[in-house]
Amino acid sequence: MARAPEQQVVRDHSSWRLTSASPVQGALVLRVAGVVDIATCGELEVELVRLVDGSADAILDLRDVSVLSVAGTGVLSRLVDRLSQSGRRLLVVTGFGPLRRVLEAIQADVLELFGSVETAGAALAGVAGEDGCAELARLRNQVHDLREKLRTRPLVARALGVLQERYGLRDVSTTNALLREVSQRHNTKVRTVAHAFLAAPPPSSPKAMFWFPGRLVPPSPPLTFAVRQPADRAALLDLVLDAALTCLSASAGTVWLTDPARGGLVLERHRGLPPEVVRFFHRTGAAGTVCPSAFRVGAGAVATELATDPAFTEEVRQVMLATGVRSVRCDPLRGATGLCTGTVVTHHHDHVPTLAPAAERKLERICAEAGTWLVWHVRTTTLDVLEHLHREARETGSHSK
């Protein structure tokens, strides 16, 4: 589909040209052409901020940009932050060439990238055109992640600053690469590593051999309901969810765990739910469901009817009732220390069944053992990650001098 004709030249700079076009789905459409480098991107940012501050959502077409420097990508990042603070979106059009690949590598955490203005407009409208079905489906599934990453960016930025200063790392790019490498090596989210890094007392010295000298790793707590020790957290959560579904004769359920970096509960495992419900829970989180209520209760499970419990928002109620669910039961995962690490939720098409006392005690024991195991796993994994980060940062800092 051909591009819409340009309507107005906003600024004709010696290195770049900024033009505006007809709005698409009520969004401001701006096009940039030319070279956007460290010497010229400051003036472009001023113009872009002036324009987007008076708009709703904005679509920024960069397909005619021949050079986009690192400083230019910083402009895009700050624009995303600026709009997201008031619930607005910046949709960036790149086509499918080298520019897109560069932005995916550098700014994939925060930018919504599209092949065309038409596809971006379809995303705003919530429909897929003939050329954009696959891309829009992918983007819809990632929107909630983009929003959450924007929320945790200040946390990660603080961690990067402290990490760079503490170990004398060369620059932010080196520091960021180090943080992400450690995150990937331990299969731990960057925001979780950043939160743990800032929360832990610093090592005795950046040059110390160990952050936690003499640390002994305690054995994993016993699990009477598992044939063998789970290899990781995901395996443990699958075991707990299967046990709860079996005890309560349910065909669908979820496991939610606390996320200190984000705050609140995050969906970690699910079984038997339609894809649209899973996407809904990922997008909205546990807010507006009975999960937070179960999390706050001092002991025992919470069983409730969707139609009458005010803990559910109307949106959550309608989504779940549409799948035939009429009631849910939430069992907190509370360890020996009393710390609640999450909750397992079963979905029922009728009333929640009443368990015999022996079955009730069995399920309570399973959740207690799982809660204790999760506390052990989080502490052990966190210290492993921090020790690895300390070692890598110490070596990288010494080589940069």
What is the secondary structure topology, with strand pairs?
Blueprint: E1 8-12, E2 16-24, E3 27-36, H1 41-52, E4 58-68, H2 70-84, E5 90-93, H3 98-107, E6 112-114, H4 117-125, H5 133-167, H6 172-185, H7 190-199, H8 233-247, E7 252-258, E8 265-271, H9 275-284, H10 291-296, E9 302-305, H11 314-321, E10 327-334, E11 340-348, H12 357-399
Parallel strand pairs: 3-4, 4-5, 5-6
Antiparallel strand pairs: 1-2, 2-3, 7-8, 7-11, 9-10, 10-11
Structure, explained:
This protein is of the alpha/beta class and 401 residues long. Among the domains are: 8-131, STAS domain (Transcription Regulator spoIIAA, 2-Layer Sandwich); 233-379, 2-Layer Sandwich (Beta-Lactamase), CATH 3.30.450.40. Helix content is 47%, strand content 19%. The chain contains twelve helices and eleven strands. The chain has a six-stranded mixed β-sheet with strand order 1-2-3-4-5-6. A five-stranded antiparallel β-sheet has the order 8-7-11-10-9, sandwiched between helices. Helix 2 (70-84) links the parallel strand 4 (58-68) and strand 5 (90-93). Helix 1 (41-52) packs parallel to helix 2 (70-84) and helix 5 packs across helix 6 (172-185).
Rg over CA atoms: 25 Å
Tell me the fraction of residues in β-strands, as a range. 15-25%
- Give the oligomer, counting copies of the same chain as homo and different chains as hetero: single chain
Alpha plus pi helix count: 12
Number of β-strand runs: 11
Helical percent range?
40-55%
The CATH class of the domain at 233-379 is identified as: Alpha Beta
Profile the largest sheet.
Answer: 6 strands, mixed
In CATH terms, what is the fold-level topology of the domain at 233-379? Beta-Lactamase
What integer is the average pLDDT?
83
Principal-axes geometry comes out as flat
Name the CATH homologous superfamily of the domain at 233-379: GAF domain
Q: How is the largest sheet built, in terms of strand order?
A: 1-2-3-4-5-6
Quote the distance from N terminus to C terminus.
53 Å
